[in-house]
Structure formats: structure tokens, C-alpha cells
Design brief:
Chain lengths: 315, 312
């Protein structure tokens, strides 16, 4: 029998070692394969999380390492939850979350529905529509400030062209009433394709035979849409909402580059506020408690939502 | 031609196509505007009304890669004639080149950290995914959920202790630190995606290999790895894109030697105020590779963005 390259390679391995490797049980191999991943995640995720929880009960400040660290119990948590600024931040985040999700689901589903009509070249156009989502939010967000410039910005020019308003008369990122919408528009531009892709998968998963049966029963297109298309695509829609919800609750890069949280505090989302507390005011203990509250909120909301999602899937 | 009730009518297709293509064109405008602005002269870039047709100029690219200082006519005289074409462009603006800019370094940092973390992530991820897919790992579902849940944490929330930890270990603002961090961030994605891809490979192939006398390790890299190559490649591109685009950790944990391009590009300024053509040029060089990758990935996009939850 001719020697395979594998055998020649194996022949070079010292007998003792080869025996040891060959002799490993599946269980040992499983552990060898999984351990590095688990170890790295423990070191970079769980260990810091536990550290954050510990710090949240202290008045530690990174910029004053020589000061005594006092155990302050729950007072950080009490201060955060009774701070009106934090609640304003939460409101800004809620506004951002609700509107981005609503717009993205609406436009994303409409696009998926249209693409599913299988016109010629739909694959190519789908890929083109996906571009914004894959790009760096910070770099793109920074460029959106250019589009939003009063007078010279392309966005202002286009709006002025269609409404007849003076393009220098409004500033999307300088006006307290417009800034929250400026971030919603940029985020919707960027992430609608995400919802679209998931909805498209949902629509494509519906077998043709169901529509054929409905057609035989003389169900109108309108009725087919509401009683077949929507319910069958619903689990996918809900999944898209879950992903966007978690991502936008964590939103930092796009918005910080676009508005930096301003003007005033109108677009200060929770992550931006947390970054200020932790890395500009250096209130480490306080911001750790803040981080814990945010994490518990995301985790809690996501778990409730996943339960609801599973119920919908079972139906 | 067979008649099907589910095949949309011709008119419907036309309308759907028209609407989708209109949306695509509108959504492309900001991206095309970035690319166009990179080739505009500073005056054209801030002209009102915005100019669509303009004389292309590489000034933005020259400014992106150079540091310049304002020069008096005497200084320009003393410096003698321009040696190179880019020198000439700079001097026309009454400035002289004082050295290269940091953009090249920052871009290189992005490349090193992006590829480094992707490589490490793929090695660890493939191994873990294989084990989760083929072996009875105790607490498998809990471990998999734990791996996924690490993705839910806002990066800022764990940034404080990571910042402290890195400072104690001397990893702040180093390539190694960022590579390890991005590897950990991307591991959840790579394990979940790769597990899905490996699950799809029939286990019979390996069993046959084992019967033929292969060891588990041989079966893994002679049978499973080649079969999973497409999946591994697309997962790797996803990891690369995420590391490439990441901003929050980069801006908090790097400032100099290991700073990547995303925190750097927004800070580019010219001799007098914000130099938009240079920013756009920097963004173009940074974004176009990702667009190319997106085209390569198009078959697996959905899987990647949903952590393998949705497969076509």
C-alpha cells in the first residue's frame, strides 16, 4: 500500500507522542477544543462583568487611585434611579428605539415583499441595498454630519428642493427638536436592509402550495396577505425586532459621531451617557452601577421577548 | 410555459422592480457622495448648491496622506521648485508638506488587528464549534447560550474593568490587547455560525474516515475542515468586517500606537478647518474593501447577521 502524506507525517511523530494523541478519548478532545474559547470569554466577558458588579458597590474613581475605596452599598443604584438626567437619557433611548424599529420594520418588510415578487435582477439590487449595513457606523456617522450641514449639506439641499424651505434655515444636528430625528433617519438608512434580509427569508420560507390552496378557495389577495403572509412571516419579523432592539439599546458609534449626544442632552442615549460618566467624569463606581442596570434591563427585556417569540413560533 | 398562480403578474413585477430600484438608488446616494467628495477640490466640496459634475482632483487623497503647514511666499521661494506632482498640488494652496500623516499607520493597525483577531477567532471558533457539533459536551446548551449572551452586553458596560485590566497587564493601546479583545467579541458569532455549518456536514464522512484508521484529529482536519471551507471563509469575512468596523472599544482603549482607522478618520482636519475631501478620501479607502467583501458574502449574509438563527 502506498504511503499517504498523512502517514509520512505521522511516521515523523515520536512514537510516544503519537500514542498519546491517538489515545485521547472523545471527551478529552471535546474539552481541549472548547476550553480555549470558554477561557477567553471568561477572561474578557465574565471576569470584567463580576468586577463591574463589585465596583458598583464602591465609590472607586480610576483617576484617584490613591484615595481610599469605600464600600457604599446600594447608594450608587439609588442615585442613578432617582436621577432625572438618567430618566431623560432613558426617554431619548426609548424615542430612538421605538422610531427606528417602527420605520425599519415598515420599510424593511415592504422592500422584502417587493423583492419577493422576483423581478429580474432582484438579487443584484438586494446586495446593493445591503451595503450601508456592512459599513463602519462611526465613519459613516461622521460623514452624515457633512450631509446634515445647513446650507452646504446634501440632505438639507434635497429637503429644501422638495419643500421650498431655505436650506440654511434648519440644522438637523444643531436643533433640539430635529436632532433626535437626525439620528433616527441615519440609523434607519443604515439598518433597514437588516430587517429586509430577515423578512425576505421569512417570505421565502412560505411554501407556494399554501397560496395555491388559498387561490382555489377564492381568497382575495388582500385576505391572503393578512391571513397567510403576515402570520407566517411574523416569527421572522419578531426576530428582526429582537436583533435591532438589542443593537440599538447598545447604540454608541453612529450616534456619538453624528451628534455626540447633543445639542444639550437631546440625543444622549444610555451608552453615550455611560461613556461620559465612566471615561470623562471618571465616576467609576457610579458608572459601574449604571452598566449593571443597563445589562439587567437588556437581558430582562430580551428574555421576556424570546419567550413571546417562542410562543408565536409554536402556533 | 406552465401556468402558476403564485408567479406574480408581469405588471406587478415591473412595479415591484421600479420601487425597489428607486429605493436602492436613494440609499446609495450617501455612499456615492462620500466617494465623489473624495475627488472634489475643497471649494467644490462645500459649494452651494451641491455640485454633482466637477473637475476631479486628487487633492483630498494628497491631503489625507500628508501633514501640511502654511507657508509664506518667501518660504515657498526658498524651498525651490516642487519635486513631485503631489508637492505641486500642495504648494498651489500656499502650503508645504511637513511630513506624512498618520492615516497610513492607522490603516495598517486596522489591517493587523482585523486579520490577527480573525485568524485567532477562526482557530478557536472552529475547534469549539466542532466539539459542540460532534461531541457530548456537558452543559452544552448552557455553554452555547452563555457564548451568545456575551454579545448582548453593551461594550461600554464592560469597558471599565477591561480598561483597568489592560492597564495592569500593560495591554492598553497595544496590538495584542486589541487582537485578544476583538477575538473575544467575535467568538460568539464564529462559534454559532460555524456550528451551523459543521452540523450540515453528514457525520457519516467522519465515521468512514475513523473506520479507515484516521484519528479524531486527522478526521477533523482532513475531512471536516475541507468540507466546511466555504462556511469557514464566510464566517472569517464576517469576523473581519466586525473587527474592521468596531469603534467603541477602539476609541476607549487605544489612542496612539494601536489606534485603528474608525476613531482616526473623524479626527482628520486640514490646515484651515475640517478638510471634507480628505475625510471622504480616508472613508472611501476604508469602506470600499467592505463593499467588495459584501458582494462576495451575498449568499451567506443572512446567516451571518442573525448568528445562524435564520438559514436560507
Amino acid at each position: 500500500m502506498p504511503l499517504s502524506p498523512m502517514d509520512t507525517a505521522a511516521a515523523k511523530t515520536p512514537v510516544g507522542m503519537a500514542k498519546r494523541i491517538r489515545g485521547l478519548s472523545d471527551r478529552t478532545i471535546a474539552w481541549i477544543f472548547v476550553a480555549p474559547t470558554i477561557f477567553l470569554l471568561l477572561a474578557v466577558n465574565i471576569f470584567p462583568l463580576i468586577w463591574t458588579i463589585r465596583l458598583s458597590f464602591t465609590n472607586f474613581r480610576v483617576n484617584r487611585p490613591n484615595k481610599d475605596v469605600d464600600w457604599v452599598g446600594l447608594s450608587n443604584y439609588k442615585r442613578i434611579l432617582s436621577d432625572p438626567d438618567v430618566w431623560n437619557t432613558m426617554q431619548a433611548t426609548a424615542h430612538f428605539l421605538i422610531w427606528t424599529i417602527a420605520l425599519q420594520v415598515l420599510i424593511g418588510f415592504a422592500l422584502a415583499f417587493l423583492i419577493n415578487k422576483k423581478f429580474r435582477g432582484n438579487d443584484m439590487w438586494t446586495t446593493i441595498i445591503v451595503f450601508p449595513m456592512m459599513l463602519s457606523p462611526a465613519v459613516v456617522g461622521n460623514f452624515w454630519t457633512f450631509l446634515y450641514q445647513p446650507q452646504i449639506g446634501l440632505f438639507n439641499y434635497v429637503v429644501a428642493f422638495f419643500t421650498g424651505a431655505d436650506p440654511a434655515s434648519f440644522s438637523m444636528i444643531g436643533d433640539v427638536h430635529l436632532a433626535p430625528w437626525a439620528i433616527v433617519i441615519a440609523d434607519t438608512w443604515m439598518w433597514t436592509p437588516f430587517v429586509m434580509l430577515i423578512c425576505l427569508a421569512g417570505l421565502r420560507s412560505i411554501p407556494d402550495s399554501i397560496y395555491e390552496a388559498a387561490e382555489c378557495d377564492r381568497a382575495s389577495k388582500w385576505r391572503q396577505f393578512w391571513t397567510l403572509t403576515i402570520p407566517m412571516a411574523l416569527p421572522f419579523l419578531m426576530l428582526a425586532v429582537l436583533f435591532r432592539g438589542i443593537e440599538n439599546f447598545k447604540m454608541f458609534d453612529l450616534v456619538v459621531q453624528l451628534t455626540g449626544g447633543g445639542p444639550g442632552n437631546t440625543t444622549t442615549l444610555t451608552s453615550i451617557d455611560l461613556k461620559r460618566e465612566a471615561f470623562e467624569k471618571w465616576r467609576t463606581g457610579y458608572s459601574s452601577a449604571y452598566a449593571v442596570i443597563l445589562f439587567v434591563t437588556v437581558f430582562g427585556l430580551a428574555s421576556i421577548y424570546v419567550k413571546a417569540l417562542n410562543k408565536v413560533k409554536e402556533r | 410555459m406552465s401556468f402558476s398562480v403564485t408567479e406574480p403578474a408581469k405588471g406587478t413585477k415591473w412595479i415591484a422592480g421600479f420601487l425597489v430600484i428607486s429605493y436602492a438608488c436613494i440609499t446609495l446616494v450617501p455612499l456615492l457622495w462620500i466617494i465623489a467628495t473624495g475627488f472634489k477640490s475643497p471649494a467644490d466640496s462645500i459649494a452651494y448648491p451641491p455640485v454633482v459634475l466637477f473637475e476631479p482632483s486628487v487633492e483630498g487623497y494628497v491631503n489625507l496622506f500628508t501633514e501640511r503647514t502654511r507657508a509664506t511666499p518667501e518660504m515657498l521661494e526658498a524651498a525651490g521648485p516642487a519635486d513631485t506632482w503631489y508637492d505641486e498640488i500642495v504648494r498651489e494652496r500656499g502650503t508645504i508638506i511637513s511630513g506624512p500623516s498618520r492615516y497610513g499607520e492607522r490603516f495598517l493597525n486596522s489591517v493587523i488587528i482585523g486579520f490577527g483577531s480573525t485568524l485567532l477567532c477562526m482557530i478557536l471558533g472552529t475547534m469549539a464549534a466542532y466539539a459542540f457539533s460532534r461531541f457530548k459536551v456537558p452543559l452544552k446548551d448552557d455553554l452555547l447560550f452563555f457564548i451568545l449572551s456575551t454579545r448582548m452586553m453593551p461594550p461600554i458596560a464592560v469597558a471599565i474593568p477591561i480598561f483597568l485590566m489592560f492597564r495592569n497587564l500593560g495591554l492598553n493601546d497595544t496590538h495584542l490587547g486589541m487582537i485578544l479583545l476583538y477575538t473575544a467579541v467575535n467568538l460568539s458569532l464564529s462559534v454559532w455560525l460555524l456550528k451551523g455549518f459543521i452540523d450540515e456536514i453528514p457525520i457519516e464522512y467522519e465515521e468512514a474516515a475513523l473506520i479507515d484508521g484516521y484519528t479524531r484529529f486527522q478526521a477533523f482536519y482532513k475531512v471536516v475542515l475541507p468540507q466546511a471551507a466555504t462556511g469557514i471563509a464566510s464566517t472569517a469575512i464576517f469576523c473581519l468586517i466586525f473587527a474592521w468596523n468596531e469603534y467603541a472599544f477602539a476609541v476607549l482603549l487605544t489612542s496612539g500606537t494601536a489606534q485603528t482607522a474608525p476613531p482616526f478618520i473623524p479626527t482628520i482636519i486640514g490646515v484651515s478647518g475640517k478638510d471634507w475631501p480628505a475625510v471622504a478620501a480616508g472613508a472611501t479607502i476604508f469602506l470600499v474593501p467592505v463593499m467588495v467583501f459584501t458582494i462576495l458574502l451575498r449568499k451567506h449574509l443572512l446567516r451571518g447577521i442573525t448568528f445562524g438563527a435564520v438559514r436560507k
